[in-house]
Amino acid sequence: MTATSTKWFFYWIIAISAVLAIGTPAIGGLPTVQLTDNGYYNEFPKVSGSYVTWREKRGYRDERVFLYDGSGTMQIPDAGSWMEHLSISGTNVAWAGGTLPSAEMEVYLYDGAVTTQLSDGNVSDVIGDVCVSGSNVAWQAKRNGHYEVFLYDGATTQQLTSGDSHSALGGIFGSNVVWANDSKVFLYNGSTTTQLTDSNIAAGSPRISGSNVVWLAHDGNDDEVFLYDGTTVTQLTDNEYRDFELQVSASHVAWRGYDPDKSNGETREPFYYDGNTVTMVTDNEYFEYELRLSGSNLVWWSSDGSDSEIFLYDGLSVINVSDSNYSDQNADIDGSTIVWTRYHSGGYSDIYMAVIPEPAALSLLALGGFALIRRRT
């Protein structure tokens, strides 16, 4: 055999990263990092870049907030006795919570150094998400019998809405805030407020990413998905499903569709719009829960037939990310980083993290960790 001759050798190789992470080859299992191991309820992680935050619950109103920075974990100072609606943007973490013995719920921001109370001490009726984007934080709270939207811009807090009906916060991106009020969708761009929807069509549930805003509007039969790209409005769906639970990331949109015709009753399947076409991601007998979208990567949790797992759709195929014998839920994603809660049978839960590999490695995992390669000699 000469140095220039070529022979084909066939090797069954196991994806080393998958073996290191879970011990045996598994279809779709990604290498994971366990961020907590303390015997408490660590839940509801949120991720932004290399930063991850979560709540640790030790007992009734005995809770803490933690921040992982890619190399180590710290407890956020002065976070209060209990907290809800965690949100993260870089080193900035926001939440709603309180400190015993007071029963009032306030809004807090940790800026990477100190924790500051943003609300005015009279916000015991904070509801829904607290949203942070950079140094901007938005939330909703009751004023004069109605829920209104508030914005902290890094220096001062202003009330964006005021009226005779409830306003429902949809999200924040930079200084842009969206909300629904009286079946209409509004956008605040840092200086002015614009109504985005037709007053004659009931609309709501807005979400925002960059200049893109999505919402649901009723077509006379059920709710459909609409996208505003900063200039024009496009109707993305016209189907018999009840569409709901919107997610948007740049020009990518995801949602769940209610399908009442499955053999075991209704199911709720995820759909994905890539900027051009709509794809029905799954078509099975299980419910898919808590969609989260970042670019072309969509995650959720659902049953695999024996327990709940975290699943990833990368625009091409579906991967079982967690692939464990435990209950994996509460996924979040930013870029290629996925975080979630793993509930153990012993009455506690931990935070796990996985990084989506390059497309070639992801395809290898989708094949169950095996591949054929050619070796040149």
Describe this structure in a few short sentences.
This protein has 377 residues and is mainly beta. It has helices spanning 16-22, 359-366; strands at 32-34, 41-48, 51-59, 62-68, 73-75, 82-89, 92-98, 106-110, 115-117, 127-133, 136-143, 146-152, 157-159, 167-173, 176-181, 184-188, 193-195, 203-209, 212-218, 223-228, 233-235, 242-249, 252-259, 267-273, 278-280, 288-294, 297-303, 308-313, 318-320, 327-334, 337-344, 348-355.
Describe the structure in your own words.
By secondary structure, the protein is mainly beta. The chain is built from 2 helices and 32 strands. It has helices at about 15-20, 360-365; strands spanning about 30-35, 40-50, 50-60, 60-70, 75, 80-90, 90-100, 105-110, 115, 125-135, 135-145, 145-150, 155-160, 165-175, 175-180, 185-190, 195, 205-210, 210-220, 225-230, 235, 240-250, 250-260, 265-275, 280, 290-295, 295-305, 310-315, 320, 325-335, 335-345, 350-355. Strands 1-32-31-30 form a 4-stranded antiparallel sheet, with no helix packed on it. The chain has a 4-stranded antiparallel sheet with strand order 2-3-4-5, with no helix packed on it. A 4-stranded antiparallel sheet has the order 6-7-8-9, with no helix packed on it. Strand 11 and strand 12 (about 145-150) form a beta hairpin. The radius of gyration is 23 Å and the shape is globular. It starts with 15 loop residues before the first helix and ends in an 11-residue tail after the last helix. The model is unreliable at about 1-25 and about 370-375 (pLDDT under 50).
